[in-house]
Design goal:
This protein has about 325 residues and is α/β, with parallel strands linked by helices. The chain folds into two domains: about 180 residues, Quinone Oxidoreductase, Chain A, domain 1 (Alpha-Beta Complex), CATH 3.90.180.10; about 130 residues, Rossmann fold (3-Layer(aba) Sandwich), CATH 3.40.50.720. The chain has nine helices and 16 strands. Helix 4 links the parallel strand 9 and strand 10. InterPro entries: ADH-like_N, Chloroplast_QOR, ER, GroES-like_sf, NAD(P)-bd_dom_sf. It comes from Paenibacillus typhae. This is NADPH:quinone reductase.
């Protein structure tokens, strides 16, 4: 089967096409024919070598964690899905930049035929991250004030919509060119982080969702706007520059895990037109297509998600 692999750390040019063996199935695994995957910032950090100590990989390595495809085979102890099911899912070990991937059945959710992989694949990872951050970790309540950083990004644009659905007052940060996009998602306030310091222009909030890698500058200013007893949720790392206990602040590092209830809620919200995954751009499943997707994501400024498509069905 065809796969896009990396044989060394480096820039996007290390991503190369290679023929590899189709993965063998364990008893609880499912073989999925890939239709769509995403460009994930974690993949970029692994590829560049930034995570080489925390998450070392063996070369050649196949990146890709979010899955959208059709079940081809199932292990003998699989009971949750069957061949022909259209599924989304998440692989902690990568492997989605390939024609087929083997993944545990509990890491998959079946999607209805009325939804496309373009609408749903992002729910498997970034959507679930947003959902668990707000509802499992943050336990947000109607009427609470929430600050969501990078409100136009893959996680951020879904978090803005989910928080608004739940009755929160949402403040989001975004760059100049994305302000109207984030307002259109329902944010009550949108702050241009390139033009002003959010900590100087906004009222205190009950919860902060932070996914900005800037050496802790956003973290520091986020604590300045958090109410005593509030919650700081980070997708990057636990806050280490502050002692949140002094102010009763919960300091939580969000790491999504497979969650059937979360996936069901997200899929239902898309079906009911309450949640929309915005696809900024599709890229072909070729070495150059995947590399260009990585370069585009690294350049910043995207609205929503970037997807890689096998073009097995119209618009994936």
């Amino acid at each position: 089967m065809k796969a896009i692999v990396m044989s060394d750390y480096g820039n996007a040019s290390v991503l190369q096409e290679q023929e590899v063996a189709r993965p063998a199935l364990q008893d609880h695994e499912v073989l999925v024919e890939m239709h769509v995957t995403t460009v994930n910032s974690g993949d970029q950090l692994i590829r560049s070598g930034a995570f080489r100590e925390a998450l070392p990989v063996r070369f050649p390595h196949i990146l890709g964690v979010e899955i959208g495809g059709v079940v081809q085979e199932t292990g003998k102890r699989v009971s949750r899905v069957k061949p022909g099911d259209r599924v989304i899912g998440f692989s902690f070990t990568g492997g989605a930049y390939a024609d087929y991937i083997a993944v545990n059945e509990h890491s998959l959710a079946v999607i209805p035929d009325t939804l496309t992989f373009g609408e749903t694949t992002s729910l498997s990872g970034v959507g679930l991250t947003a959902w668990q951050a707000l509802f499992r970790y943050g336990n947000i309540q109607a009427g609470e004030r929430v600050l969501i950083h990078a409100g136009a990004g893959a996680v951020g644009h879904l978090a803005v919509q989910l928080a608004k659905q739940h009755g929160a007052y949402v403040v989001a940060t975004a760059r100049t060119g994305n302000l109207e996009f984030v307002r259109g998602l329902g944010a009550d306030e949108v702050i241009d982080y390139l033009a002003e310091d959010f900590a100087e222009v906004m009222q205190p909030v009950d919860l902060v969702l932070d996914m900005v890698r800037d050496g802790g500058a956003t973290e520091s200013r986020s604590f300045a706007v958090l109410k005593d007893g509030g919650k700081y949720l980070s997708l990057v790392s636990p806050a280490v520059r502050h002692n949140p206990v002094v102010r009763g602040i919960e300091n939580l590092f969000v790491q999504a895990v497979p969650d059937s209830a979360g996936w069901s809620s997200l899929i239902r919200s898309v079906q009911e037109h309450k949640l929309k995954v915005h696809v900024d751009q599709f890229f072909p499943f070729t070495a150059e297509g995947v590399a260009e997707a990585h370069r585009t994501n690294e350049a910043g400024g995207k609205k929503g998600q970037l997807l890689i498509s096998w073009n097995r069905e119209l618009q994936a």
